[in-house]
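Thread: "does anyone have the structure for this chain?"

Original post by V.I.:
We have the sequence but no experimental structure in hand. Need at least a predicted one for the grant figures.
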Amino acid sequence: MSNNDTAADTRSRVLSWIALGVVYLVWGSTYLAIRVGVGHLPPLLFAGTRYVIAGALLYPIARRAASRGRGAAQDGAAQDSARPGARAWLAGAVIGILLLFAGNGGVTVAETRLPSGFAAVLVATVPLWMIVFAWPMQHQRISLRSAAALAVGLGGVIVLVGGGTASGHISGVILVLGAAAAWGFGSVLSHRLAVPSHAMLAAAIEMLAGGVVLLAVGAGSGEFARVHWSSIPATSWIALAYLIGPGSILAFTAYGYALSHLPVTTVSTYAYVNPVVAVLAGIVILGEQFTWREGLGAALVLVSVIITLRRSHGASRPAPARDGEIPEAETLPADTGALSRR
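Reply from O.Q.:
Generated one for you, tokens below.
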């Protein structure tokens, strides 16, 4: 191997770890940004605006990336993949509604009631929901290890729900768990629908579809009429800009780069690093309180996620991922990228 090849490999590896670090920090901090934003902006309007703008910015970039992604020898196929038809848009819309409207929208609404770190820990149950839904939909057997992960995670959820009951946050806890279930269901369902094969293009379609539905429901529920635009502080707009740029576009791009250069089991560690980052950011920046009970529940949930995501140590390169989704629990192909998301 020449010195140039060695230098190129070293540079690629360094960049891949930098990309993973971006995913760790940015997606972990999006819970904090959501909490700041919904302090003065209605949650559905806030989330919908984020995804419509992010999707609109990402779509032309994704079209260009898809058109050149297969090389000159396959120009026709590449052009076809860059022009999603009605079937691809419908599939992307269904997944976008599940992941971003029901999933991220639910988390955004819940963060009007819950501390950001607490919400992030509950979102970490997504891999467990994926195991549950993969059983009837993909006929994937629940192994002894998966059952153990589910049992440990369930114990953590019970502890967290008890903490939510004691603090009067039970409605928010239920809302986040429902959002995590919707995300898990959408993640599994995405394997059965004709979503675009190009990850970035699929993410853009899902963002646009989910964002439009979020805005429509927000408008129908009267959120627009309740906004006092003159009283919205700069911090809420900064939070929105952060979620659109770094939180959606930058972190997704970094996630895709890391997935193409690092083992999937390495990249999947973001699923249990993000909640830790979210908890620490909430404590340090917002002064959120994290009780010993919440700490115990969080530890149990994270242990269950580690058990789930460490099931396949032999995987070296994943399939492309889309925005914010945790890799599938049974086989660990990275799927779509963030209740980021996130």
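V.I.: this helps a lot. The radius of gyration is 19 Å.
O.Q.: and The beta strands are 322-324, 336-337.
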